[in-house]
Design goal:
Length: about 120
């Protein structure tokens, strides 16, 4: 009888320690607090996107890993999964646009043809 009780206790502990945990992650803009749809999330060689409401569900069994969150025009965040609660909001901040000024030149078809011919 004691063997059965110990076996059941052992299986229960293994399930708690090694079982998967679900986390609901909500990615938001740090200034507007609006959800960011289709942000990229990755961990342990797995990658996926948030939905149109900025939400994703992680099924995870190794809480010692790090979650990377990225989106075009925003700084990439990395957060240890150990710090997660069952429902977590992650705020990412926008990058400043540091593009140099560009000059757009328009040519007529005739002028473009002359330029191409003169190049050969």
């Amino acid at each position: 009888m004691n063997k059965y009780v110990l076996s059941i206790c052992f299986l229960f502990i293994v399930n708690i320690v090694c079982g998967q945990t679900d986390f609901v992650v909500l990615v938001k803009d740090s200034i507007t607090h609006q959800p960011i749809d289709y942000a990229s999330l990755s961990y342990s060689k797995k990658a996926f996107l948030t939905n149109e409401f900025g939400e994703a569900i992680l099924k995870y069994n190794n809480r010692l890993d790090t979650l990377f969150i990225s989106y075009v025009g925003y700084h990439t965040q990395k957060i240890p999964i150990l710090k997660f609660s069952p429902h977590i909001s992650i705020y990412i901040s926008k990058k400043e646009n540091t593009f140099n000024e560009i000059k757009v030149i328009g040519y007529t078809l005739e002028k473009l043809a002359k330029l191409l011919i003169s190049a050969y």
